[in-house]
Design brief:
heterodimer; A: about 120 residues; mainly beta; 5-stranded antiparallel beta sheet; globular; B: about 200 residues; Double Stranded RNA Binding Domain; 2 domains; 6-stranded antiparallel beta sheet; 4-stranded antiparallel beta sheet; 3 helices; about 10% helix; about 35% strand; extended
């Protein structure tokens, strides 16, 4: 393997991460530190994309908050991510669903994948 | 470049540099060479790819053949010829300068090369002028173009030094240095780290 990728394996510890892809609806439990207190914040939305390889991967989650679209990019192996829950597995036909940004209301829904 | 997470969980971007082991090949002195300097080599290569003259030079130092050789004046080292410099000479948190050859950009215009802003507007009847240099001098006097006038030409591929980069981490087993910042040059190119 590429020496840089091998080094990343040492720098960033492995984590248990559920399988998810663009179009899935997930909840990210993210730890927020305020002064010396820390709490868990939930960010629930649709995955727009997964980007990068190995331990430096990131993913983008989009949600509608008070009628305004909010997107957040998380590093997949961030130590501040406590847990990732996969709520729904969506059926989309591409790996990056940026077209969702231009849609709202009923048309912005993603069909759920039918489990066999 | 890559990144790592600090103690607060923040992602920190860093450049990874393989620094050493660098072998001391020769110590030049005023008596023998007319000046004081230390010659250092890095990146081992095969003996079959080494010319006969250089083979002798490496043999004299008792070192394996190396790809890169550079010389440093005012270099204080206790090391003898044939011994190795390692990353242990640096400490974490220390600030260093990194010298390297910047990426070649080819023949570039004045807007990219000298940060000119171009001439006039893009619309309102103008065309072909928005990345032009403008006037390069007077006509009747001096009726020539001054030396050093900034014009289009080859850009990049020159020695650049990035100063005061903090050392984030040192991994001495693999001779790696992680720097909090970018360094000149493309991936896999050679750089000089100055203390």
């Amino acid at each position: 393997m590429d020496a840089l990728k091998t080094l990343e394996m040492d720098l960033i510890p492995a984590k248990d991460i559920p399988e998810f892809k663009a179009g899935d609806s997930i909840t990210v439990h993210y730890r927020i530190v305020e002064g010396d207190k820390s709490r868990i914040q939930l960010f629930k939305g649709d995955v727009l994309q997964r980007k990068g390889t190995g331990r430096t991967q990131t993913f983008t989650v989009r949600k509608i908050s008070n009628g305004v679209g909010v997107e957040r990019i998380f590093p997949l192996f961030s130590p501040n991510i406590e847990k990732i829950e996969v709520n729904k597995v969506g059926r989309v036909r591409r790996s990056r669903i940026f077209y969702l940004r231009g849609l709202k209301g009923k048309s912005a829904r993603i069909k759920e994948k039918r489990q066999a | 470049m890559t990144h790592y997470f600090d103690n607060d969980g923040r992602s920190v971007a860093c450049t990874v540099i393989e620094a050493g082991p660098c072998v001391v090949l020769q110590k030049k002195t005023i008596e023998t060479d007319g000046y004081d300097a230390v010659q250092i080599g890095f990146d081992e290569k095969k003996e079959k790819n080494t010319s006969a003259g250089m083979k002798g030079h490496f043999k004299k130092a008792g070192a394996e053949p190396v790809k890169q050789i550079s010389e440093f004046r005012d270099f204080n080292t206790e090391l003898n010829v044939g011994e190795h410099l390692t990353v242990d000479m640096f400490t974490e948190g220390e600030k260093v300068h990194v010298k390297g050859t910047s990426k070649g950009k080819g023949f570039q215009g004045v807007v990219k090369r000298h940060k000119f802003s171009g001439v006039g507007m893009r619309t309102h009847g103008q065309h072909d002028r928005h990345r032009a240099p403008g006037s390069i001098g007077g006509s009747s006097w001096p009726s020539r173009v001054f030396k050093g006038m900034r014009m289009a030409g080859r850009m990049g591929n020159e020695t650049v030094k990035t100063r005061n980069i903090k050392i984030a981490k040192i991994i001495s087993e693999q001779n790696l240095i992680l720097l909090n910042g970018s360094v000149p040059g493309s991936k896999g190119s050679y750089v000089i780290i100055e203390k």
